[in-house]
Specification:
This protein has two domains: 19-148, Sandwich (Immunoglobulin-like); 158-441, Methylamine Dehydrogenase, Chain H (7 Propeller), CATH 2.130.10. Helices cover 3% and strands 56% of the residues. It has two helices and 38 strands. A hairpin with a 4-residue loop joins strand 19 (242-247) and strand 20. The chain starts with 7 loop residues before the first helix and ends with a strand. This is YncE family protein. It comes from Thermodesulfatator autotrophicus.
Amino acid sequence: MFLRVILISLFISLFIVAPCQSSRLNVFLNIVNPTSDKIILKIKNISVRIDNRIISLQDFPQKISSRVDFGQEFLGWISFEKGVIDQLSIVLDKVSINGKLFSIEEKKINLPVNYKILSKTSICLFVLWDIKASLKSEKFSPVFSLNIQRTPQRGDNLYISCDDSSTIFVVRSDVNRVVASLYIPSEPKSLDIDRFNDQLIVVSDKMRLLSIVDISALRLVDSFVLPIVNLPQYLFFIPRQSVIITDPVTSNVLLVDLSSGNLVVFKRLGYSPSDILFDYNLNKIFISSPRDQSVYILSKSLELLHKIKVGQRPRGMAILGENFYVADPATGMVDVFRVGSWDHLGRIYSGRGAVKVFSYIDRLYVSNEKEGTISVIFKNQMVVSKKIRVGKQPFTMTASSKRGWLYVALRGEKAIGIIDLNSLKLIGKISLGAKPFDLVLSE
């Protein structure tokens, strides 16, 4: 088991002092049987009844459209301890169809539910809006039904950690819709995937936990407290059942064996080590250390091999071809080095708050957090070829090779932006109602 005996007392004491966290209910609208009509509903209120208490959803939209991106709209959320959810109510104000106002036959719609929550969880309810059926009568009569999330089918799913809601969301990448959510204790940060064992590995900073999620069942199967760390934030899974974890507070870097849960080795590294990159071809670990303006290159046993001085506050890293790229949000630059010799080749101005870099095929993508853009740099070029405006605070990125999409965490919008990698245009957003921190695809 992962939970070691020597950490049991620490684990118990941590839970005693940690604040009690509530369950989270996430509500989404899914469009069913769409038509060419543009229908806009103005919303007065959305609420749920739990143990005879009426609780209004937080962050519910003032209006919803039948033409929402990817046929899904976030309707709001609530937090609560436990109880039986037996009803969801939507109170409508007005409706317009193709720009003309229509009267509404029934302004308050009550949808029955029967879902009992006994322990901390994060769960999704999906309101299905049948557009075609809603237009059958002379007066507009919205046809809604309700579904509770099911265990997602294994396939090409996007997993998103949200550190402000103790939640991992699951998005089906073929339709770009949220299909489920899962509770992860206290502020999940970085996550990665063990494809051989079909597991997600998640690090949570507040409780110093490393959590293991069975992907096929979407179930938390194990967790253990990490030693000698304070606020661990980043991890990277490497072959042979190992995971690297950085803690910017203690400046410790850990190598943990997932099969036993044992700490293999740790090293104090620089000042506030953060982002991690493992390159499978070089078989080397790269860790950026913003406070000492360095990137450290390590072996898989955490032996220090090389140290590179970089800019003012180096963060995200990527390798593309023969070049190694490092983003520096303090200067907006991307520093470029030659792999192997580690000679500095130059700097590329990307944009304000250049924080993360992601390489895919023959391009490098840079998220410029402070200006809301993604920069595109082609292989072996020392200039930005294109900027794509995506929204507030773009952060982590990942790409779907099957779909040809780049997913971008938009922390300032509590959403995921999607870029078509052929046209290099933003094609839509997936609203989550929570701040995305990290992304990983299961394809």
